[in-house]
Amino acid sequence: MKVISVGFLFLLFGIICLFGNLIFTPIILLNLQRFRVVKNFSRFLVRISWNFFLKCTEIFGYQSSNYHILQNLNGSNSMIICNHPSLLDVVFFLAKVKNANCVVKKELKKNIFLYPAIKASGYILNDDSFLENSIRSLKSGESLIVFPEGSRTKDEILMHKAAFFIAIKGAKNLIITTLTMNPRSLKKGQKWYETPKIKVKYNFKIDSEIDLEKFYANKPDTLRVRILTQEINKFYKKEFK
């Protein structure tokens, strides 16, 4: 029965994407996403769509969570980071953080369900230009959601330095969040039907905020990036030891 519910939710996810694309595709064809008001409208549609989808995952008994606390992350010129244990993580954040930008994997450019929303919303692909695009996004006043592991957690959490280069170069604040889930589901390499028989519990925590304008301000940026990377990795290792 649980597998049937999860299968239906995957189908629902695809249907939501297809309906959204009826709006996102004309926006892209007319290149309207270059206007901030249109881009924010697209992000609004993403937010209400994913809120609806997450509510359905609760109704069908797949998951329960405290993701409502993420609505408190609406700071401008801030990078928001989190560990990345499952496939749904970005959905939770985009459902609650208003007008946020987000770094997503470049492979999604080939995804006919998701790419129109990504393009219309101005989300950033982690391709060759993602460092420059991410820094530009932050300097324009946007908040930016990043999963510095780059891919879903397998055994050990390891945050990559590129995210903290972006933070030092473009952000005023770094907001550190953590996500625990029990039991693990939708892990990297795990099939969708290999789902737990019990409800998955997601627990988000907003841990701390670093003022990057004061973070080793007397040091060169290369050293600041290295120190920040080390401190964040140390934090997550301690948190999930």
Brief write-up:
This protein has 241 residues and is an alpha/beta fold.
Descriptive overview:
The chain is of the alpha/beta class and 241 residues long. It has one domain. It has seven helices and seven strands, in the order H-H-E-E-H-E-H-E-H-E-H-E-E-H. The protein has helices spanning 2-29, 36-59, 89-96, 115-121, 130-139, 161-170, 221-239; strands spanning 63-65, 78-81, 101-104, 124-125, 144-146, 173-182, 200-211. Strands 1-7-6-2-5-3-4 form a seven-stranded mixed β-sheet, sandwiched between helices. The protein is globular, with a radius of gyration of 18 Å. The model has no long low-confidence stretch (mean pLDDT 92).
| Main beta-sheet annotation | 7 strands, mixed
Structural class category: alpha/beta
User: If strands are numbered along the chain, what order do they take across the biggest sheet?
Assistant: 1-7-6-2-5-3-4
- Unreliable sequence segments: none
Mean pLDDT: 92
Q: How much is the radius of gyration in Å?
A: 18 Å
Topology as a string of helices (H) and strands (E): HHEEHEHEHEHEEH
Strand content: 15-25%
Key descriptive features of the protein:
241 residues; alpha/beta; seven-stranded mixed β-sheet; 7 strands; transferase; membrane; 1-acylglycerol-3-phosphate O-acyltransferase activity; Plipid/glycerol_acylTrfase; transmembrane helix
